[in-house]
Amino acid sequence: MDFIMQGLSYFHKGGFVMYILLLCSIFVLSIGIERLLYFSKADSGRNFADRFYRLMVNNKVDEAKELATKSKGDLALLLTSAMNKTFSDKHALSAFFEIQSGISLAKFRARLYYLSVVVTMAPLLGLLGTISGMISAFSVFNLQSGQATAITGGVGEALIATAMGLCVAIIALIIHAYFTQRVDSILTDMEQSFSLVQSHYDRGEKNASA
Fold first, then answer.
1. What distance in Å separates the CA atoms of residue 147 and residue 154, rounded to the nearest whole number?
2. With b meaning 16 or more CB within 10 Å and e meaning fewer, what string describes 6-34?
3. Residue 140 above 80 pLDDT?
4. Predicted model pTM
């Protein structure tokens, strides 16, 4: 209880910027939770990509198609659609993958930009709060005895905003880095899986023309 009361006391001492930083922290956590729920639904996962790869390189195309059909996520859905469609040539298949993967990746990257904005903005807001607090602290300064302690205390309280800004920025940076890394992994899985399907399609075209 004392810890909570002390935290609230520090929060009020940080000034008006603390309320903005609080909104930023809520915004960051909301994006993190929303992205986590979306990725859990739309990401087929590395395990699926590995199993699909092993089946395709072993020429078990029907099993790979069945795996994609029964799996969740955008990658599995794209592979199922591509393997069930009839394309006029390999360029049509390539265009299908390019367009559909671009739409899918745009959805995965949605709102991650706002996290990078908060990473940059939060320390600046904290610095603004600190400067504002230091101006207030020095504005009451006079040379009477005992005022030095009040000044140093005011400066210490002003630094609370900077600390809060850095904490918000660090949390936003961690969440942003986590989801950016997951998008990179999804992109790698897509490129690998699409190249396997395209290779299979190319072999089928050659056999048909032979």
1. 11
2. eeeeeeebbbebbebbeebbebbeebbee
3. no
4. 0.83
